[in-house]
Design goal:
Elements: H1 6-16, E1 29-31, E2 34-41, H2 54-57, E3 63-67, E4 81-89, E5 98-103, E6 109-114, E7 117-123, E8 129-132, E9 142-150, E10 183-188, E11 191-201, E12 206-215, E13 221-230, E14 236-246, E15 249-258, E16 273-281, E17 284-293, E18 298-301, E19 304-307, E20 310-311, E21 314-319, H3 333-345, E22 350-353, H4 360-369, E23 372-376, H5 391-406, E24 412-419, H6 424-440, E25 445-450, E26 458-460, E27 468-469, E28 471-474, H7 483-491, H8 496-502, E29 520-525, H9 533-543, H10 549-567, H11 577-600, E30 605-610, H12 633-643, E31 646-647, E32 650-653, E33 656-658, E34 663-671, E35 676-686, E36 691-701, E37 704-713, E38 720-730, E39 735-746, E40 758-761, H13 766-774, E41 778-780, E42 791-793, H14 801-815, E43 819-822, E44 828-830, E45 852-854, H15 856-860, E46 866-870, E47 883-884, E48 897-899, E49 904-912, E50 931-942, E51 945-950, H16 962-976
Parallel strand pairs: 21-22, 21-30, 22-23, 23-24, 24-25, 28-29, 29-30, 33-39, 40-41, 40-42, 42-43, 43-51, 44-45
Antiparallel strand pairs: 1-10, 2-3, 2-4, 4-9, 5-8, 5-10, 6-7, 6-9, 11-12, 12-15, 13-14, 13-16, 16-17, 18-19, 19-20, 25-26, 26-27, 31-34, 32-34, 34-37, 35-36, 35-38, 38-39, 45-48, 46-47, 46-49, 48-50, 49-50, 50-51
Domain Glycosyl hydrolases family 2 sugar binding: 31-150
Domain Glycoside hydrolase family 2 catalytic: 300-480
GO molecular function, one term: hydrolase activity, hydrolyzing O-glycosyl compounds
Length: 977
Amino acid sequence: MKFFCKTMLVIFIQVLGFSCNSQTKPENEMSLNGEWDIIFDDTNQGISEDWYKNDVYEKQNFRKINVPSCWEEYNKNYEGVGFYRKKFNVPKSWEGKIIELNFDAVNYKSEFWLNDQVVGFHEGGYTPFSFRVDNLAKMGEENTLVIRVISPIILTDKYIDGLGRQEVPMWRGAITGGVWQPVSIKVKGTIGLKDVFIEPKIDTNTAVFNIEIENTEITTEQVEVTVNILSKNREVIASKKGNIESFPGMNALNWNISIPNATYWSPNNPFLYKAEVTIKKDGEVSDQWSHKFGMREFTVVNDQFHLNGKSIYLKAAFFEGLYPTKLGYPDSREMAIKEIKLAKEAGFNMIRPWRKPAPKMWLDLCDEMGVLTVGSLVVECMHRPISTPRLPFVVENELRKTILSNRNRTCIVQWELFNEINRPILAQMLNSMSVLARELDPTRMILDESGGWGEGANIFLPFERTSKKFNDIHHYSGSQVDEKEFDGYLATAQTNKKKEALGLQGVKSYGKNVVPGMMSYISELGYGSTPDLISNIKEFESKGNPIVAPSIYHKELNDGYITALKKVGFDEIYPNVQDFYLEQQKMHGIANKRMIEATRLNDVVKGYCVHALVGGDWVIGAGLLDLWRNPKTLVYDMTMEANQEQITPIRILPRNVYGEKGAQLEVYGVSELPNEHVTVSVKIISENGNEVFNKVFDKIFKNGISTFLMDQLNTNNWKGAHIVQVEVKNVSGKVISNNSQSFDVFSKEQLTIPKAKIAVMDFDNKLTSFLDEKGIEFIPFRPDLDKNIPVLVGITAKKDAKYRASVESLRRYAQEGGYVVFFEVLGEQMGGPEDPIILKDTATEVLPLGAQMFGKWPTRGGWAAKSHVVTNHPVFKGLPTEMIMHGVYENVHPDVALAKQEGNYIAGLIGYDHFPNKDRMRRHFIGPGEVWWAADVMETPFGNGKMLLSTLRIIEFLDKDPVAEKLLYNIINYISK
């Protein structure tokens, strides 16, 4: 049974009114791009006042607008109704022929009149459509086209023609209102091409041409159909011609054409053929169509992604598709080329456009430049559109139109239908929409839901009608990829037996609804950093648009950072805010690199997608490139290193080493290439430049994952910062891989036990047990304690009533002149991924229980930069200071912080609101929220005494990490003075 159902195709095309998607403008097509008129109908009065009539329109207060463009380029943040008008001449020679108006995309609902006569309407903001207008057009005369457009309603409470706020599909980068993609008018004969769908089949080296011919006459006509396939040098290498009887209405052809010595399309060789389809009636051309296509197949074989019969490890880049001035559409073809080129140069073989079908021009470039692409739909964008009775219609409408309009794209190898489903109605639609997608396009792999939040992900392989379970995983480590986080990647999707073999028993793995042992793909990982806002702002000033959101929020974010740094005194460390941005980018690069290395060491995971190629809006920090497509150098370079075909991940366990205990050195090889003989050099260099370890050995760099070195290091005489350097050379002496990893060794001399008189209030005995073990004398706290004796307060269970009751006595002790150190602050928890965060400046009088406490999400950062700065203070004596926490601090790094807390900041957080407070659940185009500051370690006067509050994980890592011990001793020495 032929999979491509002729009857269904006819129905789909009749319902949608689709026209062929050609990549070039033929001679019979005329562009209508350029200057148009527009009236912004803010009160929605135009339809009742007949503005669609030219003589009425002429009396209104209209202005000029360029098409294509998003209308917020002309009217700041405008949403609602707009009336467009365009006057143009139709050639006299088009008389008696079929004329079509073609629109690449109009957002969102649009109605059309030509010469005061109704044409039709369209719903959907990101896909092409067309109308037949030959009976409405005036040949050889001026014609007037009027379009009424209703944009997505996002920020206001407008309700227009049954469409309310956030009820329609919308992309989060911009409103993207109006006629934002190209417009053209085309002429053809009375018998024309309605649709052509090419199915490449590399197993037979054939291309199946599914051709829909529309006969607009009332009689059966004989026509000649010709299909030519041309090579790059324009030679016809395959052809088929036939005479057919064309009945009134739709006629379907399915021609299988062999391609001799077929060359396959791939990222390394993006070879494209050109298909030309021509219909002739009575020897005259009635219609013609052309499109470039490639011979390729993307599927899964034996739990491996395969391209053209060969395994491929997917290395994808998440892509928002936001641009600095044109917003939803590339500012220029050159800018689009630049971003795709930079993605490939960074080692990515796939781009995942996110929740917005990419424009034709951009997909043309992906075809030509050779990058695999995910076909994305503008549905399920972080709870949007909101749930209304229209939601099922909206989903199906977008799915149909997106697939039908883009299924000849060579670069698109997979359809992604949903993302992180969170509503029952969408979960219920998973199977039906997957089946519909399969009917519309039998040739591609289909992923029903990225993230697998609903019921776990499923994939449909090409030409398969039943699905295959699949682990599609989203996980963001945030700012610190410590040992626990790294192990989590290694454990992800592994069976318990495999975990035990790897020494990962009890390690929590990542993902939702994950099936152990099943092929997996981590489709979202990454961290974030602020772009160089100073340089970006200069670019906006010289070539940007001051009223579009990116121009505004780049400046606001920069001002916010400057204010926040000054507020807590960190401007003394970063007097030039650009230095702060560059250091953030270094942290971003380190985090990305470690996440990728850990992922590639997991043999069940067959690829990953880094969030993101380009930043923008409320994910402004996630990009490897800024919005102007400038690489954020350190992030870009380190991500590129981890993307290479051959890498050598390094682990030092533990990261911070007790000198007398030693450490485990592990060096691995990960290769996508065939086995080859190599020479491996492993060195360890101390902070004073001495070489303390050196091994050189021959090895086979195997395809897949292999172990290069496992060695127990004797660090008894080592001290301070060290770096492992690995270099791999092939038999010709060429360096094919290198890597480095830092670690620190702490000698007994660095961990001298303090001698001071202290008191302790403990609740779980972790602090007191450690003090006893180290022989540090202390006395239990009591309310009448001598005020000259400082008090250390241990950690406790979050709801421990005893702890909370004890806080008042500790507060009084400080008020009366004592010094109290809190190693935990149980204030008001704020800031889960979905919770609104409304902050106020918090006075010291409410400490500690009255503090506003950021939870792990805003403190660690997810995909947004959350920078924890360490000052030069006695608390951090003997440790790196005046820097953003990383490396030596990865274990004690805080999971919580005191938000907007008054006091003297010894270490603290600078970050921004992921989801701006006032529009937190709207999450669209208005950019990041306010810049936050929060304390990790702070000292403050309290009555006649003082408090020192720390959210560092010091107590949790005593006896596990020498840095925790060092910090505890520093604090005791500091407060005892």
